[in-house]
Amino acid sequence: MQQLSVTDLAAWLADGSREQPQVLDVREEQEWAICRIEGSRLMPMNTVPSRAQDLDPDRPLVCVCHHGGRSMQVAIFLERNGFPDVYNLSGGVDAWALEVDPKMARY
Questions:
Q1: Regarding beta strands 22-25 and 2-4, do their DSSP bridges make them parallel or antiparallel, or are they unpaired?
Q2: Is 65 a catalytic residue?
Q3: Could you tell me the pTM of the whole model?
Q4: How confident is the model at residue 50, as a pLDDT?
Q5: pLDDT tens digit string along 16-68?
Q6: Could you tell me which of 33, 30, 36, 37 has the C-alpha nearest to residue 12?
Q7: In the prediction, which pLDDT does 58 show?
Q8: 45 DSSP 8-state letter
Q9: Cα–Cα distance list, 60 to 55, 102, 107 (Å)
């Protein structure tokens, strides 16, 4: 598992010449309702073990949460379960709001 900064993720998502990552938001539905990274997919942390088969192990995967702790745990789990190209978004959506999208709601 690798760490990825929010500015690096923003650049990656804006680069049409690179394979786009799966952006997996592992927060709870009520957190997702407040704010999210455009194009991300909600899969609360406690559902990942039973839903991991819905993800593509052949595509890069970026795990996201509020500050980066839960997503790091999910990234480690996915890496141990057959996902070779997994990233944890350092600082989570809070860092995204501070550094990439200041209009994003924060909590």
A1: unpaired
A2: yes
A3: 0.96
A4: 97
A5: 999 999 999 999 999 999 999 999 999 999 999 999 999 999 999 999 999 99
A6: 37
A7: 96
A8: G
A9: 10, 26, 28
User: Mean pLDDT for the chain?
Assistant: 97
**Whether 73 contacts 46, CB under 8 Å:** no
Q: Report the C-alpha gap between 22 and 14 in whole angstroms.
A: 14
Which pLDDT value is given to residue 83? 97
Rounded distance, CA 96 to CA 36, Å? 9
Q: Helix, strand or coil for residue 46? A: helix
- Active-site residue, from 9, 23, 63, 65: 65
- Residue type for position 75: A
HSE, CB side, 13 Å, CA atoms: give it for residue 46.
2
Count CB neighbours of 53 within 10 A: 8
Rounded distance, CA 20 to CA 31, Å?
A: 24
